[in-house]
Amino acid sequence: MARVKRLEDDNLRIVQVWLLSRLMIAVIAVAIAVINARSLDSVIAQWDVAHFLKISSEAYADPKEMAFFPGWPLVLHGIGLLGVPTVLGGTVIALVCSLVAAFALKRIAGPWGAIAWLLAPTAVFTAVPYTESPFCAAAFWAWERATKDKWGQAAVLAALASTLRVSGLFLIGALAILALTQKLGRGQSLAGRLSWLVLPTAVLVVYVTYLYGLTGSWTAWFAAQEAGWQRGFHWPWEALTNHWNTLWTPNAEHPEWPWLFRAELISWIVGLVVTVVALAKRRVAEASWVGVQVLAFSLSYWLMSVNRAVLLWFPLWRLLGDFASSRPRTRGWIVVGAITAALALVVQGVWAWLYFTGRWAS
Predict the structure, then answer these.
(1) pLDDT below 50 — which residues of the chain?
(2) CA 130 – CA 60 distance, rounded (Å)
(3) Exposed, middle or buried, 4 (CB in 10 Å: 0-12/13-18/19+)?
(4) What is the DSSP letter of 312?
(5) HEC states along 117-144?
(6) What's the CA gap between 331 and 328, in Å, rounded?
(7) Cα separation, 56 vs 212, whole angstroms
(8) Least enclosed by CB within 10 Å: which of 88, 131, 140, 216?
(9) How far is it, in rounded angstroms, from Cα 9 to Cα 6?
(10) 31-59 per-residue burial string, b: 16 or more CB within 10 A, e: under 16
């Protein structure tokens, strides 16, 4: 009975934090819409949302849009076919997926890890029609299922994740390492585990082949990344030098840019630390999941979108969950936890304000 009560309390706590944080983000969005006499749709549909909406209505008419995977635009297109306002429908799905992801993370990282994820600074991207929420929901559950040796279910979920963003490729690689390092017992054989990964791999092959049919190029996705976002190949030391030069350059029109670039560097360093700590704890597959993304960001012109990628790094939230759950439930630690949560909400609110006002928010 005590165990059931604890589980119920953990679930309730996760739902409460989800409601509180998402309500705060919603209030900020509505306030900005009212104060600036704008439609709520225009406040929500910033940055990548505009690209997803364009693809959902025009497919890949613009070659630069090929940088975005088709899964989420197809969902938005389906919402439109149902007669539901696309932005509103996409927002509702993103919000639901963020809760689904949190409960998957609860199984991976414990309740405090899930709560930490819900309070992440860039959580606004899990409350708008971006791919972060649906990808995390699919990827986190894929990982949870794989750790339970349910590789068929994991493969289906990984395939779904692979329709949403290129991070699906990294997920497949990390799952392959998990299969290689997982103990063999009464579950599936190593060959059986690895064979299931053909399914999500096929999704990526189909997308690359589709782009080849449109463009005649096997590297159409890379070309779109470079043309639209300066993400051509650069050595890590070049990327870090280029990034470092942005940290101290004031921008009168966009004063937030240097601060966001500094946050990108901090997030990148966090990724390095998580990779090293996961390796030290012999969590090789988890280390590979974060480490390969850190490497990928290091091979671009500069560090960009790392702040958002932190949302995908469940090993980070597992480490935070482990730390929080190991603290004694003394008054001092409870106060520290409450202050940390309050500060996290403040930072989360500032980041939401950046996004909804059209400022660069990573």
Answers:
(1) none
(2) 18
(3) exposed
(4) G
(5) HHCCCCHHHHCCCCCHHHHHHHHHHHHH
(6) 9
(7) 20
(8) 216
(9) 5
(10) ebbeeeeeebeebbbbbbbebbbbbbeee
- What is this structure's pTM? 0.95
Residues 267-322 have pLDDT tens digits of: 999 999 999 999 999 999 999 999 999 999 999 988 999 999 999 999 999 999 99
How far apart, in whole angstroms, are the C-alpha atoms of residue 21 and residue 124?
9
Percent of the chain scored above 90 by pLDDT? Answer: 80
Query: Of 184, 270, 111, whose CA–CA distance to 278 is shortest?
Result: 270
Instruction: Give residue for tokens 């997920």.
Output: 171
CB atoms within 10 A of CB 233: 11
Give the C-alpha separation, 243 to 245, whole Å.
Answer: 5
| Helices and strands (DSSP H and E) totals, the chain | 17, 0
Q: Which two tokens stand for residue 184?
A: 């063999």
